[in-house]
Records
---
Amino acid sequence: MTPLLRFYSVQDAYGEFSNFAPYPVFLDKKRWPTSEHYFQAQKFLDPKVQERVRCASTPLLAARLGRDRRQKLRADWESVKVSVMRRAVEAKFRQHDDLAKLLLSTADAPLIEHTDTDSFWGDGGDGSGKNMLGRILMDVRTILQTERRP
Ligand SMILES: Nc1c(N[C@@H]2O[C@H](COP(=O)(O)O)[C@@H](O)[C@H]2O)[nH]c(=O)[nH]c1=O
């Protein structure tokens, strides 16, 4: 059995898989400093608010802006958030070949966002979470494996 591969902090092993890792993505005709900036900005439909998130100086500040409920969340957020994340993560790995190679080097290892602060995107710390970010990474890995198979 391939051992589980857990990641979370940018500074730790496989921190490149975190949305906070400093890999810009180009999407919707704009450059986003991290996939987190893109993801958080999509919570809002107002282009001015999106732009404020895009220009946040760190991914943590982008996440704070995205999580600030003084700004109204778009009404359909719950139904679109997984596809938004998929789009951000796929762009990140397609646009940085070093990252694509790192992802492919994990072969068939289960990828787990290991954190007790998030049981939707992460594993909830005890494995009870949905690990949606890990699942999306594994889906992107499958796409890249299929495309690059000789
Ligand atoms: N890595 C990481 C976090 N986790 C990330 O937060 C995002 C989900 O945000 P939300 O849906 O607003 O709760 C998603 O990218 C998830 O991977 N949160 C943090 O505060 N610090 C961090 O280092």
Note: The chain is about 45% helix and 10% strand.
---
Amino acid sequence: MSKPVRAAVMGTGSWGTAFGMVLADAGCDVTLWARRPELAEAVNSTRTNPDYLPGVELPGNLRATADAAEALRDADFTVLAIPSQTLRANLAEWTPLLAPDTVLVSLMKGVELGSTMRMSEVIEDVAKVGADRVAVVTGPNLAREIAARMPALAVVACTDEQVAQRLQAACHTPYFRPYTNTDVVGCELAGAVKNVIGLAVGIADGMGLGDNAKGSLITRGLAETTRLGLAMGADPLTFSGLAGLGDLVATCSSPLSRNHTFGTNLGKGMTLEETIAVTRQTAEGVKSCESVLDLARRHGVDMPITETVVSIVHEGKSPVAALKELMARSAKPERR
Ligand SMILES: NC(=O)c1ccc[n+]([C@@H]2O[C@H](COP(=O)([O-])OP(=O)(O)OC[C@H]3O[C@@H](n4cnc5c(N)ncnc54)[C@H](O)[C@@H]3O)[C@@H](O)[C@H]2O)c1
Ligand SMILES: O=P(O)(O)OC[C@H](O)CO
């Protein structure tokens, strides 16, 4: 009998824990790394994650540790599930501990501030591995639903299709159905920008602008994401797939989305400080809207919705004034 695939999941937040559960349900031997020893202890003793997924019973072939070396030892897959802006510093500490041929898997949906690097680029840069050793899992994957084993599809992207297929097999369960894709640029961009569009739709929902506004923002959000993707060499079809449209629809429809909820609170009139204070988990779009806009400017791409989100979240513009400006933009053809 062949030995089970070993997976280290670095991050015991909501998605790290839920995806660890998927891997364990698919038959992998899973070790979660938790920053706080008391959380690792709670996971092992209660078989739940009381801080991030209370009430969800975790499988027996998943355990937690606060010792990164122990988690990473002999891992076939090293899954990174921490906030995007903390990846570089954490991975620099973990790199000497990585198993020699491990495949690094990003669950993160963000773009690094300053460098404007996608998460797979940060991984290649810090861990000094080639693109064929880095994979991305993305798509409409709200952690709470997956933890309840509700059905979801996903995309597993890697430039090396065989590596993507290995990861696909390692996380395929009766409720989690991953597809492979070799367009890593498109898959990552789609995931990061949908958080920004999720903020915009949340703001519109909080303002009570209705479903026509929501449909319009999702569609034009996808249009500006695709424009950026094309400028960066992505396959435009990726954006109408699970990583693009699929994730946008899930995020923009769900009160479980942290980005959507963050936007809704702003749209209802909460200040940025009040909104941050009531947000207990990572809403990646809040920081990544700035790096996405930076990326758009570097590539000479117009992203009016992203620009609007930055102006509301980081420049103190009122949602009402921002809406007026968006609606007053010059009339133009739908396709350019
Ligand atoms: N939650 C979801 O539904 C979901 C789904 C798909 C993708 N994602 C993406 O997965 C990534 C992780 O999100 P999450 O939902 O698990 O977030 P979370 O807020 O639930 O958990 C974040 C985890 O990172 C840890 N952490 C925070 N700051 C850290 C630091 N400086 N160093 C090391 N660890 C730190 C926290 O302790 C926690 O374990 C994000 O990029 C998010 O966009 C989330
Ligand atoms: O809760 P959010 O807004 O980070 O969204 C979670 C996932 O990305 C949905 O696919």
Note: The domain at 191-327 is CATH 1.10.1040.10 (N-(1-d-carboxylethyl)-l-norvaline Dehydrogenase; domain 2).
